[in-house]
Design a protein that fits this description.
Layout: H1 17-22, E1 38-42, H2 48-55, E2 59-64, H3 67-76, E3 81-84, H4 91-95, E4 100-106, H5 115-124, E5 126-137, H6 141-149, H7 153-156, H8 171-180, E6 184-191, E7 200-206
Parallel strand pairs: 1-2, 1-4, 2-3, 4-5
Antiparallel strand pairs: 5-7, 6-7
Length: 209
């Protein structure tokens, strides 16, 4: 297995929790309409988000390291190409695809051993001028303080959760990840709950033309 990821989720069909909480807000960070453009969904799970982009008129390729997720995605969205693999710097050659207009990765980066390697793979698959959007659970001073005061860290980061989160990301650390990968024009959005106690966050960055 790639060093990028620890987990092999037992994915289920249906609407993921990320869409229940976020709706289409992560996609709003993609510039302009998505219809007619090509997108890569990295860590696509059961294919919901790839299917959502396809329904909006995009051409989509979905990737995931979990075989059962890919099987569900192919059954649920036969009009989308899904492949069981990780984002690597040789991904385009492996797929036989041209660079993509945009990349989404929804609730993935918190599970990765090697987020920098993951970002290098994503950027290599992106067109100059293209945009990547990542989402992940939000962490910041006020939220972390609230979790501490409520003595909820064992619930929030339960070490007995198989396939759980490996890393906690803040706006600053996620911005740094994108900047180190050479992305610019970062945009941030908190999502779910009240400001600074957000359930999650989305960040986008553009590959220089």
């Amino acid at each position: 297995m790639s060093g990028q990821a620890l987990f092999q989720y037992r994915h289920r069909a249906g609407t993921p929790h990320s869409y229940v909480v976020y709706g289409d807000r992560p996609l709003e960070l993609l510039p302009g309409p998505v219809a007619g453009k090509r997108f890569l969904d990295v860590g696509c799970g059961n294919g919901f988000w790839a299917g959502r982009l396809r329904a909006l008129g995009a051409t989509v390729v979905g990737l995931d390291g979990a075989a059962n997720g890919i099987a569900i995605a192919r059954a649920e969205h036969p009009e989308v190409r899904f492949e069981e693999r990780f984002a690597t710097e040789t991904l385009l050659a492996e797929l036989g695809e041209e660079p993509f207009d945009g990349i989404i990765s929804i609730e993935v980066v918190e599970h990765l051993y090697d987020p920098r390697g993951f970002m290098r793979g994503c950027v290599a698959a992106l067109k100059p001028g293209g945009t990547i959007v990542l989402t992940t659970p939000y962490h910041g001073y006020l939220k972390n303080l609230a979790i501490s005061l409520a003595d909820k860290w064992d619930d929030h980061m339960n070490p007995l959760w198989d396939g759980g989160h490996l890393k906690l990301w803040s706006r600053a650390s996620l911005t740094r990840l994108l900047a180190e990968a050479g992305l610019t024009d970062m945009k941030f959005r908190g999502m779910g709950r009240v400001p600074f106690l957000w359930k999650g966050m989305a960040i986008s960055g553009r590959k220089p033309a």
